[in-house]
Amino acid sequence: MNVPILYEDNHLLVVEKPVNVPVQEDASGDEDLLSILKNDIKERYNKPGNVYLGLVHRLDRPVGGVMVFAKTSKAASRLSDQIRRNAMEKYYLAVIRGSMDSPKARLKDYLVKDRKKNEVYVVGKDHRRGKEAELEYEVKQEESGMSLLEIDLYTGRPHQIRVQLAHQGAPIYGDQKYGGKVNHPGQQIALWSHRLVLSHPVKKEDMTFESMPPDQYPWNVWPEYTNRDM
Asked: What's the pTM?
């Protein structure tokens, strides 16, 4: 499997995650991104034994786009700390069905995950298991009964963007789990990890990495936001 490498040094590996590939091994037994990248490092650098590669954040299986991995335990610890402090900025692009009430707003909800069903629900603030979830969106363009959003993710709850937008009555195009009434089987979810802004764990330099969605429907309704090479 060809996984595009966006940046690599002795401390970081930044890649473009392919869609429909699990980030790490799961019950499906399908090839996972972490194993693919470890094997690639092992072969490219002729490394003996096990290869270390730290998973510091995740993307849902159907979602593609930019991801950062740590090549040392020190880098993993420092990147994880950035995420805990909300110092790592994570931006997504999403195509939703319909439109949002406001062109730009911050959404704050409380979420609970049903692990048996692998589904997440919005609950009241006082729910004992509710975890705070927050994001900010901006509508970039509207066309053909859909809207293109840029999302600044403040917290990293499972399925967070998908659930919060569906709760607003604006499910993401292709999302079967949280938009089954308007989406159809076989449609690819239009959610993409677009940009990461982080501080290099060793050099302390601010770094920005970007990835554009593929030149496919519905992304190509807005061709300036797509990668024509994909």
From this structure: 0.94
